[in-house]
Amino acid sequence: MQHTLVSPQLVDETLRRAAIDNMDNASIRDIVKVTNLLEKASGLPYVRMEMGVPGLAPNRIGTDAEIAALQKGVAQFYPMLEGLPELAAETSRFIRNFIDVGIAPEHILPTVGAMQASYVSFMALTEYKEGEDTVLFIDPGFPVQKTQMEVIGKPYITFDIYEYRGRKLREKLESYLKKGNICAIVYSNPNNPSWVCLTEEELQIIGELATRYDIVALEDLAYFAMDFRRDLSHPGKAPFQPSVARYTDNYILMISSSKLFSYAGQRLGLLCVSDALFNRKYPHLKARYNSEELGYTLAYKLIYTQTSGTSHSPQYAVAAILKAANEGKLDILQDAREYGKRAGSMKELFRKAGFAIVYDKDGEEEIGDGFYFTIGYPGMSGGELARELLHYGISSLPLKGCGSTREGLRACVSQIGQDKIELLKERLARFRQDHP
Amino acid sequence: MQHTLVSPQLVDETLRRAAIDNMDNASIRDIVKVTNLLEKASGLPYVRMEMGVPGLAPNRIGTDAEIAALQKGVAQFYPMLEGLPELAAETSRFIRNFIDVGIAPEHILPTVGAMQASYVSFMALTEYKEGEDTVLFIDPGFPVQKTQMEVIGKPYITFDIYEYRGRKLREKLESYLKKGNICAIVYSNPNNPSWVCLTEEELQIIGELATRYDIVALEDLAYFAMDFRRDLSHPGKAPFQPSVARYTDNYILMISSSKLFSYAGQRLGLLCVSDALFNRKYPHLKARYNSEELGYTLAYKLIYTQTSGTSHSPQYAVAAILKAANEGKLDILQDAREYGKRAGSMKELFRKAGFAIVYDKDGEEEIGDGFYFTIGYPGMSGGELARELLHYGISSLPLKGCGSTREGLRACVSQIGQDKIELLKERLARFRQDHP
Predict the structure, then answer these.
(1) Chain B residue with Cα closest to A261
(2) Taking CB atoms and an 8 Å limit, are A63 and B57 in contact across chains?
């Protein structure tokens, strides 16, 4: 007797309707769509682990500041491309307080989400030196960044970090860099989808190579400070958010307000260019965009022509949040720690049901509990497992589409409140009965 | 004796500092910068006509709705790429009420300002058919749209409409279209910078040719309904905002909330794709962006990868404004009519001081009073005139940089409140005394 909650016929038919043959090839949005259809047809609310949307209320300091700004009438005025001066100033202080490195306020640009930060960075970095137009991704990673490269029309190369942790990373990176066509190394830390957190040794390797080959390390800090194994929440006090910025001057940091402050809706990202790079002149940027300096090109050629800056009132919101964080009046992890707790409970349930954590270690250390974790089941590919779990009311994302070479799934904890944990337990028990 | 208010030495030195040799080649932002420097050094507040920023308070219905949305917590949630359903629905009604054409809500996409609307349109339209990658601009026009083309890396052609009004437009357009490399015709109506409003005859010509050559008319309605010669403010009642949409199915409209509703700061534009085009499939889009349908490409490949949509709360603001307009509870021109009054007063002062209106007619009709007007002075080029006026505390934009073949300036009325009119009068009197 099978213990499925949704009939195989319905799952098959729904996947067919969405033109999904193998779930390894489905995009996040495809899977969201399939899950919506399955919920509607079956009447069963799913345990939804497929998409990384913030699951907590937005930071109140932010909405209060934004409402005050609207009441003052800021909706009338174009924001400056350099952003609100307070926002740049507080971001600069934030970077000093929580990463312990220095970036001048004038080298920080607000963007329409970290999405625009990476888009314009790719446009600039693939054009700054003739012949160096290829981006190297340390995978697994956020699939949309590769779609950005495709839309821009520039080449990229990726490899899965799984086999190249620690000092093995140096040789692997150099095997690409010595070819001379790489313009930038991109990675997220903590990592989406695997929740790998690069060790100081690994960040040092990346930094040293960025300097040696004179290329840029583009560091995606979308999950800033959310490695809960250390308490990174105290301004001006170690431990700090690890960053390549400590090991090279050739870096750009991308900070997001979406996950840490649950402010995804207002699309406010921060593009933080190192002091050494911002005013650096590149003849090929001049040839391509008629603008020689990297920072000026990002602000006045790329952000300006794409969106003419980013909405005005959200800049007040994020400035107020960062100010409170800098002054120690806001614990930046106050809300986000909830994600770590959920991950801990969920991982335990999965392990008990016979699953294994795919990306399980950072160096010698057990991987942290955070916004995502990865799971595999013996004898099943990621695509097969994702499909199978749909029968038990659980949705997830195969790792293949994120550039992973491992078989397994990404699970996002954000939509799994404590009330869903019990549901997950029951459903995994059913799965386990059918897959002994 | 000279009657200048700012010394020639200071003007020369400031222009040199800004690396401006000839003002005909200066960008809007260059001139803003020069004027800021001159104000600071001379202590004289300028009559600032160089930049098209909204000069009125933001629409209150908008800010109230936006504040209510923030209080509900929308800052947490990613907006859908298709936009808030109410926003799309009200925009569709608005287009029916004020243009008298039909576009289904699902073919309307919110963008980060009309800036993003044109950027993504250029990216899609220059790739939709092999060999048709050149955009044709009916000039004069907004200079940044050409910078967008340069950033995207695609060719464009322009001509000045001045000599080709009325039925002469057909032959001129066909001389380009028959070469087969044009993908789209772009123009603004009312026109920035000249305030030319295309006649129904001209719009019909553009529409017929867009159909005949199967290309897209991309109509920039940034100054929607602001041709004050007719009262276009009554929902569902003629006269309507003129549009190419009445003459072809091959159109895309771009609507802005910046000028009409003084909502520039929140960056909310509307990209309205005709029902005939939205789901149309183009094999070359598939080859280039891996997405065959025009509308899907715009939303899921271009807007998604660039910004992942546009800020959430401003969508509530504009939806509420459009709803009030549709229900006849808001006179859409209530605030904007002020611009027409200012233009009337200012043009009279300039005429009395010996200036002439450069773009002076639409067909047989005198040009309207609106957000911009154009002026020339006998015996002086646009660059010379702009420079000369700086000595009298007046800043403006030469027409050359807007693709005009005429000598003269664009004057924007937005920052010239009634208190500044008297100042302008005195300063023009000084100019007149020195240039008899």
Answers:
(1) B76
(2) no
Judged by CB atoms closer than 8 Å, whether chains meet at A267 and B317 is answered as: no
Instruction: Give the mutation candidate from B72, B76, B148 for the A interface (greatest A CB count, under 10 A).
Output: B76
ipTM: 0.96
Please report the domains of chain A, with CATH numbers, ordered by start residue.
8-55+336-434 (3.90.1150.100), 60-326 (3.40.640.10)
Classified as helix, coil or strand, B194 is coil
Q: Is B317 on the interface with A (CB under 8 A)?
A: yes
Cα dist from A213 to A101, A134, A164, A200, B194, whole Å = 22, 14, 20, 20, 51
> Measured between alpha carbons, how far apart are the two ends of chain B, in Å?
13
pLDDT tens, residue by residue, A371-393: 999 999 999 999 999 999 999 99
pLDDT category at B83 given cuts 50, 70, 90 is very high
- Residue in B398, B265, B273, B257 with CA at minimum distance from that of residue B322: B257
Integer-rounded Cα Rg, in Å, for chain B is 22
What is the pLDDT of chain A when averaged over all its residues? 96
3-state DSSP of B362-418? ECCEECCCCCEEEEECCCCCHHHHHHHHHCCCEECEECHHHCCCCCCEEEECCCCCH
Chain B contacts in chain A segment 42-61 (CB below 8 A): 53-54, 56-59
The stretch B90-97 carries a mean pLDDT of 98
Name the minimum distance, in Å, from the CA of A249 to any CA of chain B.
27
The whole-angstrom separation of Cα A209 and Cα A264 is: 33
pLDDT tier for residue B55 given thresholds of 50, 70 and 90: confident
Peptide bond into A190 cis (omega under 30): yes
pLDDT score of B277: 98
Distance (Å, rounded) from C-alpha B406 to C-alpha B25? 14
Cα–Cα distance measured from residue B133 to residue B136, given in angstroms and rounded to the nearest whole number:
10
CA distance B312 to chain A (A): 5
In terms of CA atoms, which chain A residue is nearest residue B144? A305
How far, in Å, CA of A326 to CA of A345, rounded? Answer: 32
Q: How far apart are CA B71 and CA B88, in angstroms?
A: 22
pLDDT of residue A39: 97
Residue in chain B nearest A115 by alpha carbon: B307
Smallest Cα distance from B72 to chain A, Å: 10
Return the SS3 of B18: coil
On the question of pLDDT at B308 being above 90, the answer is: yes
CA A312 to chain B, closest CA, distance in angstroms equals 5
Asked if A113 lies within 8 A of B307 by C-beta distance, the reply is: yes
Task: Determine, for residues A311 and B310 on separate chains, whether the beta-carbon distance falls below 8 Å.
Answer: yes
d(CA A347, CA B289) in angstroms, rounded, equals 38
